[in-house]
Amino acid sequence: MVAKTMEDLVSLCKRRGFIFPSSDIYGGIKGLYDYGPMGVELKNNLKNAWWKSMIYERDDIEGLDATILTAPEVLKHSGHEDTFSDPLVDCKSCKARWRADQLEENSCPDCKSKDLTDPRPFNLMFKTNIGPIDDGTTFTYLRPETAQQIFINFKNILTSTNKSIPFGIAQIGKAFRNEITPRNFIFRVREFEQMELEFFVEPGDDIKWHKYWVDARYNWWLDQGLDKKNLELLEVKKSELSHYSKSTIDIMYSFPHGKEELEGIANRTDFDLGSHSKNQKEFDIKANVIKNDKSTTKLAVHNLEKNTWTIPFVIEPSAGVDRGILAILNEAYNEEKIDDKNSRVVLSLKPHLSPIKAAVIPLKKNNEEIVMKSKNIKHTLQKIGLGRVALENSGNIGKSYRRHDEIGTPICITVDFETLENNTVTVRDRDTMKQKRIGPDELINYYRLYFN
Ligand code: GAP
Fold first, then answer.
1. List of the chain residues with pLDDT < 70
2. Cα of 343 from ligand 1 centre, angstroms
3. What is the per-residue pLDDT for 85?
4. DSSP structural state of residue 384
5. Which atom number of ligand 1 is nearest to the Cα of residue 196?
6. How far is 257 from 268, CA to CA, in rounded Å?
7. How many angstroms separate the CA atoms of 137 and 134, rounded?
8. In whole numbers, what is the pLDDT of the chain averaged over residues?
9. DSSP secondary structure letters along 137-200
10. Do 242 and 147 contact (CB within 8 A), yes or no?
11. Bridge pairing between strands 167-176 and 61-64
């Protein structure tokens, strides 16, 4: 096995249709990427695995799909208008702009000059205008995290689902940040997706639940194929905590460019519900919130036994989909020697994440009977509903295997002349490259079992 680099992953992603630079034919835009045919399947599979683990396999979490455009009041009371900024410096020599906290030896990475401006806060939120008149008063923000829509929908969800704490609200969706220096492929980008859970608990139970979610989320990443040796839990220093957090544990992953945050699990206390609630004075809000005279709703729960109203604490596991994809690709990518002359690139993805579950390959591209038989097998397997099954009719079996190894297809099924006689096919396993001949009934079982 040969060591992989970020370049290996970027090259595979472009070559096999996982990820392309956005607006590529016009030279691209820094920090923006498009997911191609394989990328969108991989991404959907990762998001589905998260959704399944959060919503379908539990009974204490509900889902949400809220808007990206966000009223300024929301991001004022969440603290983002005032504090969601990075320190920006300009290089006076070459005019490049940098994040002050990411510079080495306080010099410009491009021209090495040390003649830089003083750092000044740069708010990372993107603004846009609502309606036909742009007079500076009708703006909204593109959300910088999916979390805020969860908090402002707290009461809607609580009352419409009859839930009581502890319970959570989960959401997957786009977030936007005008990063000063986007870099490292899809690691730090300006448009990305988050998978966020806000789990509401009784104040006092927060430390217990925080630990619970750190463990649960760490184990979930292992189930997605990440190796323990590449993962680490890091307690964020008090001085580096976000404005809303009492304590945060980051799940760090050894990306090709270094060890960095994959997911953060924060104890957000009663900061968010307290910030967005009306009649704040009625509650014993522990966090430091700014006065809210705009909200129409109390974001509190009723304790029937004590007849008291409390603003719950929030534990938030917040994972980046794109960083997850990068970690998974890094983990799955292998270059293997087949023999003295040949090697292959294989993406050993966990089967549930593979963009294509099985490829059906007619041995002869132009043989109508073989192609028809292959199509029938494809449709039969597709109907089982485990994900995408592809007909791969390139006419070159070696190239087809190579392509499907590189995109991580667990099973290749070859249809040949013998299939026309006795309905048997050859199945080839991606990881072992072993082939065997099986009959039609066996094929369906083989396929089902593979993904169980
Ligand atoms: N709601 C909490 C929150 O947004 P965060 O640590 O700023 O916390 C959570 O972001 C996760 O979102 C990160 O762990 C990371 O995976 C992902 N993320 C944040 N900024 C990103 C960026 N510019 N590009 C890609 N992913 C990003």
1. 1-3
2. 37
3. 87
4. H
5. 1
6. 30
7. 7
8. 95
9. SSEEEE-SSSHHHHHHTHHHHHHHHT--SSEEEEEEEEEE---SS-BTTTTB-SEEEEEEEEEE
10. no
11. parallel
